[in-house]
Amino acid sequence: MVRAMSEDEFNRQEHGFDTVSERVAAEALIVDVDGYEGPLDLLLTMSRTQKVDLRKISVLELARQYLSFVDRAKALRLELAADYLVMAAWLAFLKSRLLLPPDPTEEGPSGEELAAHLAFQLERLQAMRDVAARLMARDRLGRDFFARGRTEDVTRVRKLRYTATLLDLMQGYARIRTKDEFRPYAFDREALFTLEQALERMRGLIGFAGNWTDIAGYLPDGFTHDPARRRSATASTFAAALELAKEGKVELRQSGVFAPVELRRKD
Amino acid sequence: MSQDTDEKEQSLFQAPPVAEQERMCEAMLFASAEPVTLRELEARMPHGCDAAEALAHLHKRYEGRGVLLVRVGDAWAFRTAPDLGFLMEKETVETRKLSRAAIETLAIIAYHQPVTRAEIEEIRGVSVSRGTVDQLLEMEWIRFGRRKMTPGRPVTFVVTQEFLDHFGLENARDLPGLKELRAAGLLENRAPIGAMPQVGDGDADSDEAPQTGQSELFED
Amino acid sequence: MSQDTDEKEQSLFQAPPVAEQERMCEAMLFASAEPVTLRELEARMPHGCDAAEALAHLHKRYEGRGVLLVRVGDAWAFRTAPDLGFLMEKETVETRKLSRAAIETLAIIAYHQPVTRAEIEEIRGVSVSRGTVDQLLEMEWIRFGRRKMTPGRPVTFVVTQEFLDHFGLENARDLPGLKELRAAGLLENRAPIGAMPQVGDGDADSDEAPQTGQSELFED
To answer: What subunits touch chain B, counting only 3 or more CB pairs under 8 A?
Structure first.
């Protein structure tokens, strides 16, 4: 366990595994990564071996410790989650920044600034853990203090009230919006607005089209939202408009390429 | 030495003062759903307590208050004073969960408002019963919005201030998008692996489809 | 004659005496298991009542009793005194055991609220699992807050009145250690600097350094 591991043990293990038992111990350490909530958590645990205030922690030392841990995992040919490797790469980068003299041409934050931020993150995580523990240790409703056990049940007014929670609402919406994703493919006639339908609809409406109106306004209700339905309705409405123009019932115009196609009753 | 132990033992088994016993009875009767018998009270109190005496004090303490200590058979309970019954009307409201159809209809109106009945049916994929809309109108969670400027000029529905109050929303735009719902684990986990959202990418740009759809709909 | 009518009218619209208002609040709060808001109390009381004043008296009256009047956000409730919990074995409700991740997530939301999912992940250094947020939402200890006015307008999480009630907090400012954390600068929203690795981080630029580092690491 990393928790219980001293510096000495770490150093000794860096020199390889002499015995089977050492190897088993090292593997146990790696397997225990499962018990950690990510690299930051592991770093926080490792930082405890320094036995100092988190504000005075040696980030360089911590980086060495973490990198040797990752090396051992590799030596054992054990897979680490990507998060842990990303952190290792970053710490290697940080280590080099901390060790090498600063390059004045280099942009970005200095090694010290990066180290300070990491120390801040560790301190903040530790602080959140501490307050979480304090919070959970408080007197709690239903365990240490109690609400009224018998609420009043006067039967004078019995009014039915329907209710729902925000969660119900969101789950309901999510249910509708995702149900199509999983439907087996089928030719969907419901999304089709036929030329015949469009013609019939237009014939009924052109009587009112005294002024120039965008043919997009003739799309039927219920065919304007869903892209597939809208596409079908647009195509058939356009074709129907052409048909009506051919019959001499309407005139069409378009002011430019991709401009709206407009329609007017021909008297 | 032995005297010390004696004293300790004695205090250990000594019943708490009456005032303390009164507090105990008060708390137990308050928290219990049913009237509690004298025997039950004493069984739960430290050894040597006299619940009857404590209750006598408690009874007196609550005389003339908004809540009274009353005897129910051979048990005791707190009851609100009979003359204040008129204040309890609200407690008798029976709440019932909204039906699934109503919730879905409401959700679509909230996310897509202003929206026509035909559009609701298009999104839900089933027709919306008259009763559902009427119920939501009656609850004052939705109301009629402007008519749509499309042929037939259909009426639209929008959500009301009461709706926002009930769900603790500042405005309907605060409703989480589809992507956020999924990231929060609110979608049933049935999506094919390839389509699974990755954690952490929920905030930025990958949410385009629902996001833009939503904002478009709200831009008027 | 006219004087008589005046007096009658006055008494008709006069609020009841404070002692009576106190009884009313006492009865209403006793009758409800949930905290009741000041507004709700006043809405149910006769016209002209001052629930706040009545509650102040009531609060004093119950000091040191087995049942206490406590404040929960904008609302008030009677709760048994915490030192008497040992008597209530029968009433104790088994709360669902929260995972370590859920507890930490809850604490982060409480202390940093309103907080986005990305910020929670930044603090914990690990992605927030779908079930965790879902569980906290379901327990009604957290809810969605306003969206952040940052790109993508991510939703935020805040704690609820149920949370305050459960942990016996008057309001979120009373969280244990809040002042100390703030004084130590640990609640500041310090943006991650430079090339810090981030959870579930997808954008190209902030990922550069680890990328190069990583390929180095694998060159063996």
So the answer is: A, C
